[in-house]
Amino acid sequence: MNASQWPERVTVREVGLRDGLQSLARTLPTAQKLQWIQAAYDAGVREIEVGSFVPPKLLPQLADTHDLVAFAKTLPGLCVTVLVPNLKGAERAMDSGADGMLLPLSASHAHSLANLRKTPDEVLADIAAMVEARRLRGSAIQIEVGISTAFGCTLQGRVEADEVLRLLNAVLALGVDRVGLADTVGYADPRQVGALFAQARQVAGPRLGCGHFHDTRGLGLANLMAALQAGETRFDACLAGIGGCPHAPGASGNVATEDVVYLMASMGIETGIDFDKLMALRNSVAQWLTGECLHGAIAQAGLPKTLRPTPLMA
Questions:
Q1: Residue (of 67, 64, 101) closest to 84 by Cα position
Q2: Taking the model in full, what pTM does it have?
Q3: How far is CA 97 from CA 44, 65, 66, in A?
Q4: Active-site residue numbers?
Q5: What gap in Å lies between CA 193 and CA 68, rounded to an integer?
């Protein structure tokens, strides 16, 4: 990809409130989560995954998702998404007024059984039921399927690209709006990412719309770059790189939001996100999560003097 082929803009979806907090033992007070949403919005973030409609007894950290959706929906132009694991969760998402719901589908048989207690094909049947429930309601909520462990699994090991593409074809046939590929456990390498995103683009076209990368082995940003070179322009990221997967031993959080925003700014690619406000939010989150392991290079090193200013930074 030459310079003229780089996108002018990418979308960064902040997923720390769900993917980040679900892996921490503590439960962040709702008031602080609302401050997080407001501050992210003020910094220019325009898509936030605010939580998940899962049983509170399983993830008490996310029990206030309905309240977070209600608040987030008051912010003009903010796309509010939630993760849902089953039909009941999808119904709650539609009731909440969220703009989109993310349905996880693991390409790893072992991870699927550990995470949802169902095989991938059983999850496909659940996704079909959720798509039908949306149709019957006449709901406008967007349905996105995130294919997790698409590049490997700590429980199963190798995940074949053909299986990822089979599942991708299956969910597209069911009528979902968008699909994404996730390196849930940080097994991917840039060559693998570039190849699979290119293959998935041939299958899904514009409905392929998200890259989700964990930085477990230090390749998160390199893998994100490979997806960017393969044409992807929408990425998940966690503020301070917090989080992980309860059923993916050793997995760290997503690539840090502030590092992704810096990467794009260094290349002259717009995100619409203000660095100073984003770092002020990170400082607040660091205080709220005192004692937790935070990640991110920019928070430690700061911005270089040679950074080319974007219009928002100028």
A1: 101
A2: 0.94
A3: 22, 12, 9
A4: 245
A5: 33
Structure tokens at 230: 């393969």
How far apart, in whole angstroms, are the C-alpha atoms of residue 118 and residue 108? 11
- For the chain, give me the number of helices (H) and strands (E)? 11, 8
d(CA 207, CA 200): 10
CA distance 60 to 100: 22
Q: Is 117 left (phi over 0), alpha (psi -120 to 50) or beta?
A: left
In the block, residue with structure tokens 């939630």: 82
Cβ-proximal residues to 190 (8 Å cutoff; 6+ apart), any chain: 219, 222, 223, 225, 226
Residue 308 has pLDDT above 80, yes or no: no
Beta bridge partners of 48: 14, 80
**3.40.50.150, 3.30.429.10, 3.20.20.70, 3.40.50.2300: CATH of 3-301:** 3.20.20.70
Quick: pLDDT tens for 168-212: 999 999 999 999 999 998 999 999 999 999 999 999 999 999 999
pLDDT at 313 over 50: no
- Return the amino acid letter for 238: C
pLDDT of residue 27 exceeding 70: yes
Q: What are the pLDDT digits (tens) for 68-107?
A: 999 999 999 999 999 999 999 999 999 999 999 999 999 9
Residue 238 near residue 255, CB atoms below 8 Å: yes
